[in-house]
Amino acid sequence: GRNLKVAISGSAGLGLARATGIPFVQEVFATGETVKRLAPDTSVAIELGGEDAKVIFFEGSIEERMNGSCAGGTGAFIDQMASLMNITNEEMDRLSLNHKRIYPIASRCGVFAKSDIQPLLNQGASKEDIAASIYAAVVNQTIAGLAQGRRIKGKVMFLGGPLYYCLGLRQAFVEMLKLGKENAVFPEYARFAVAIGACIYTAKQQGEYTYEQLCNILEDATSETTQTSRLRPLFNNNSEYEEFKTRHSKASLETIDPNNYDGDAYLGIDCGSTTTKLVLMSADKRILFSYYDSNKGNPLEIIREQLHKLYNICGNKIKIMGSAVTGYGEELIKHAFHIDTGIVETMAHFNATRHFNPEVDFILDIGGQDIKCFKIRGDAIDSIMLNEACSSGCGSFIETFAHSMGHNVEDFAKLGLF
Q: Structure pTM?
């Protein structure tokens, strides 16, 4: 048979190209080559992939823009949102076509989007409206994050799997950009634009392969042992793990049966971004009652249920002398349940940490959506560092990642110990 010219592109293509020696072409360049060859009158190309998004401006000097390390607003983001709604991507797309209103939803971060969507579901918002709102968020992220003020006009070509399969996403882009039918181009080859560009690129290459040679190169590459850098395990054996648990268990409070207690108590509530925590403490700082669970987007109802349970436990023997609330929902919970006072969560951390370690000089807190680091100097918080638009590494991120691997958080955490 005839010889072949081959090039590899795509996010996972660079490693394969290195292993095989086959030429690699950057995917933005490949996309540009496809558009210039097959649709030279295109003004702008927008491509959404599994983990990346690209906008290429062709009018004037060619300008290419691509997302960085965050996959917000890409195919992976859409997959995650469909999973949150417990529906397939196909079902979400069909639902979006029958929406009646659009809700504001964060798209830069899947964790923040999750916190926007869960309350809407709990409050009875239709899945049709939520599905369309997710697509609108993707459009906003693409336009604001990549176009960055440069106007998307003229003939716009839409490429990539999400824009080929998701009719609701197509509609959202057309409506947001106010494109006429003649200027919104959804080609049949949208899924293969990068691969087509790689084909075009090979015309400039000298090397050729027979079919048999190509098969052998790929087989040899897959059979080679790949050296992967690995981190050391957290613990080398179970005894190290037990020693760690023993050391850290010293910073804990005694828990007692409330049925055996008679006296004053104090209530603390932490209404976080993704979880709700309650603690009832005796006057001598022993825990009478504690609760920790996901707020499922509706912390008011959860706290109401737990307070009813708490009052039944207290009866006439335990008197709650004071209450305080902290966290994302501080003001909401304070006014809803007439809590005595609200406290900024950094101060809540500081007060609790000082109880266990009066000489503490650094505190790290990983929450559902945020990570806080603060330095202590003297008797005050000296400086605070906080994550901003990205929640990678936070609790909700870990939870979502665990579920994607088929584990709950508890089992997932154990897998990383040894």
A: 0.69
